[in-house]
Amino acid sequence: PGPDSIGAIALSHSGGGAAAQTCGLVELEPIKVAEIVKNRPSWLQDCRRLEILATFNADRGGLVEIVHTQMYAPTTLAASRDFWTLRYTCCLEDGSLVICERSLTAGQGVQAIPITPGFVRTEILPSGYLIRPCEHGGSMVIVVDDMNFKVLRHLRSVARERAEEGLVGNNQTALLRGFSHRLVRGFNDAVNCFTDDGWISIISDGPSTVSVHINPPPNCRQMGLPETLNTVSALRGGIICAKASLLLQGVPPALLVRFLRERRTAWTELETEILQADSSRTSTHDTLPKGKLSSVQVFQSTAGQDEVLEVVRLQKPRSPRGDDANHADNFLLQLCSGIDDTAASAYAQLIFAPIDASVP
């Protein structure tokens, strides 16, 4: 394969299947590439946790690891997954690094391992990386995976950030990417509401309905459930999460996200309507001006990443009584990705969260 190529190979042996392969040049040394690709939670947003439970030395300086990985559920209609794998790393005679990973089978003791509550035990297709050093620096990375090539995008982002850091003496791009990573991880935490993170279910009538969870402060988490529910309203802090999933047939993700993003004022007027209703009781004004929305793009990824980070300002209408102390403008940090991907199996997201206006 040449640089920036992608392909798929049908496998006629070993029970059949398909191997997806991609290849790309990365301006990082092979050791650094291997370190990054093995740290899956740093570049795969759906990965909640990765633990190395045991390591063994192999021939020619190779290393075998037993790895337990937990994956977030993408929606409330799906289940969170975990899998157990063997990962093998070795160095070839020409200086290339090889990292291979495959699921442990039932005959290798995985059946005796208890399943974590809230997860479904699954297997992954065999996958791996061939990392070849280039003569003039950098690495040629060949990835064989089940159509998940986010690692190449992440590697190039890291290489670009290292170059920027050397030029300007700071790493603002990495800081902004850290914000987007926190946004996605926080959203995944809210979608899954794992009990080991302190979430308590209040309302849950099935995956196709609205469910409500709370995550009380640490001092409240230690209490029993009935006492927690009785006292949570009296304590400050904590999080309440209401969530639901909706299946839309024949609607591409990119189209839906663009629709939500471009017509945001149509579905963010709830607070304005409440303000109008409250003001109508004490004012002769029949109507009030609606809130205004503006945004400033703070981070645009390079070509091929399709990810935008914005600061969104929601300007609330002013009260006719002149009491605007409790109606300051809201500022949101918003991540939007996948809006240019029109494939049927594409993935798009629009995630936003409040941010302090004093952040530079």
Automatic annotation (TrEMBL):
InterPro entries: HD-Zip_III (IPR044830), START-like_dom_sf (IPR023393), START_lipid-bd_dom (IPR002913). SMART domains: START. Keywords: DNA-binding, Homeobox. One of its GO terms (molecular function) is lipid binding. Pfam families: START. Residues 40-150 form the START domain. The keyword DNA-binding applies. Coiled coil: none annotated. SUPFAM superfamilies: Bet v1-like. The keyword DNA-binding applies. PROSITE patterns: START (PS50848). PANTHER family: HOMEOBOX-LEUCINE ZIPPER PROTEIN ATHB-14 (PTHR45950). This is Class III homeodomain-leucine zipper protein 3B. It comes from Osmunda regalis.
